[in-house]
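Collaborator request, handled under Task 6.
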Amino acid sequence: MGRYVLYSRNLESAAPAPVAAEAAAAAARACGARVLGQGSGTVVIEADAALAERIASQLPGWALTAETRAMRVPTPPRFKAL
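Structure tokens returned to the collaborator:
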């Protein structure tokens, strides 16, 4: 299992996307993927690579990329000893 980002290729154009993010998330859930989050034009899913590719191929105007970004935990500030 890996994390993948589905994104609408139509974000640059003025035309509306053929499939909305809500519909893309619903399609991913229907195929058995776990939807981790969604925004305007993006959906983050957790699935096998083959399943993620199949979901992306079913959504016209959407592309797929592996999620490579991890959450960073900020380092607390260090105070000098007095």
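The cover message to the collaborator said: "Residues 21-31 form the longest helix (11 residues). Residues 30 and 55 are 10 Å apart (CA to CA). Please let us know whether this matches your experimental observations."
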